[in-house]
Amino acid sequence: MISTLSNSSKKAIITGAASGIGYATAKLFIEKGFIVGLIDADKKRLASISEEFKQDTDVCYYRSVDVTNEVSLKKAIDELTDSLGGLDIFFSNAGINGTWAPIETLSISEWDQTINTNLRSTFLCTKFAIPHMKKNGGSIIITSSINGTRIFNNFGASAYSASKAGQVAFTKMAALELARYNIRVNAICPGAIDTAINEKTTYSDALKEVEIKVEFPEGDRPLKNDTGTSEQVAQSVLFLATDASANISGTELYVDGAESLL
């Protein structure tokens, strides 16, 4: 059991915290002595990992929220910040792959779902975190992707790629606007990571009509060591959350084993 956390401990809120990168980051933050608030739509999973984390920390707060619902999201962020006793770090991580389909057949509702879950929620999270961070500064980290920023060969991912490109542009705009409050804003751009998000992706049968085959006979990840895990991405988030990155803002950090450089 980690000793009782002091008032000087970092306070962090993480969205999409019930699995994948969000879960790995929450676990790492707690190991480092942070006080953590978790947000995810999966209430059952949140309750389970909260009990798990309580083996290592005296406090772990969570709220089950759809990040596209602005009223519920603001309420959750306000309540968690109050429970944490402040807010130093906000990790805007919740997102979906959505539906991958040709633009011609992608429905407007499918487009909106992806844009709202990924890009709109990033705006909402940042907007609602600012009032809690203006006085003392802090760090906002946004999960973007190599898709839409460095690579464009995942055919059918037009909505997903557009949302991820938008997140990077938003990161840079927010970094400039919030610098006066000493709030740093950065993005992480993971490559292929084995998480539950892949299991929830819908692939259209019509993709074969628009795909251009890209083959990498020797593999699509140049870095040959054990890369591509949520835990590795979490280490990058930790770096951007702490004073080790005190002079870094408005930057996207690629965590992909050089995959996107091919």
TrEMBL record:
Keywords: Oxidoreductase. InterPro entries: NAD(P)-bd_dom_sf, SDR_fam. Pfam families: adh_short_C2. The keyword Oxidoreductase applies. One of its GO terms (biological process) is bile acid metabolic process. The keyword Oxidoreductase applies. CDD domains: SDR_c. One of its GO terms (molecular function) is oxidoreductase activity, acting on the CH-OH group of donors, NAD or NADP as acceptor. It comes from the Bacteria. Transmembrane segments: none annotated. NCBIfam families: PRK05653.2-4. Belongs to the short-chain dehydrogenases/reductases (SDR) family. This is 3-oxoacyl-[acyl-carrier-protein] reductase. It comes from Enterococcus ureilyticus.
